[in-house]
Amino acid sequence: YLLILHDLDLNKSLEVGSYPILRARRTTSSSDTTSTSSSGPRAVGSPCHQNDSGLLSEKHMSRSSQREGGSPRNSLEVLTPEVPGERDRGNCITSLQLHPKGWATLLRCSSNTDDQEWTCVYEFQEGAPVRPVSLRCSLRLTHCIEEANVGRGYIKELCFSPDGRMISSPHGYGIRLLGFDTQCSELVDCLPREAGPLQEIRSLYSHNDVVLTTKFSPTHCQIASGCLSGRVSLYQPKF
């Protein structure tokens, strides 16, 4: 599941049992999102069944949050993102990074049987609350691409570039540079009505073992990748 902690307040306890939990099933549009309430930590690990529905119970809300019309501080939302082709088989999120501007989340997902992998981009959407005390959030799948599924069972760490225009993703014995279109446009400039494929900009292969992690430098035109045997490679463009 994807856990979203709303309106973080580090001055308050982060014990899950102390705060309401908003639980939403997987969705592709804000109109499909439903949420329900729970006060125990057991709900965090329980499945988000499609019949989960209802509003956040007012008895769990503080009076101040009701007046403000939002979720209480440190409230936890549990979302199950949709993954292409896995609606009936289930899936597991193995790697995650937020877009530098907070517009979306980047996920590496695998099937429950580890025989398929995807890189997916989900746009955050805040649904209009039905009542003032129920703030709902949803994820919309905007882009995805199937991965090589080499090195089954290992976590593959992927990342956004510092400007959010490109994605670096482990791909077998190398990495792929992916974009939302072939011109490396901003995500907000090429949002499709329905989920579309990520575009491969370039592939780089320099390892003799499965690549498990990749990272853009925050200050230089440089990318690093690391493989299972421990070798680290650095790449930079030729101008």
From TrEMBL:
It comes from the Eukaryota. The keyword Repeat applies. Pfam families: WD40. Keywords: Repeat, Ubl conjugation pathway, WD repeat. Residues 63-74 have a biased composition (Polar residues). Residues 27-39 have a biased composition (Low complexity). The keyword Repeat applies. Pathway: Protein modification; protein ubiquitination. SUPFAM superfamilies: WD40 repeat-like. Residues 26-86 are annotated as: Disordered. Gene3D superfamilies: YVTN repeat-like/Quinoprotein amine dehydrogenase. GO terms for cellular component: Cul4-RING E3 ubiquitin ligase complex. Belongs to the WD repeat DCAF10 family. PANTHER family: DDB1- AND CUL4-ASSOCIATED FACTOR 10 (PTHR14588). May function as a substrate receptor for CUL4-DDB1 E3 ubiquitin-protein ligase complex. This is DDB1- and CUL4-associated factor 10.
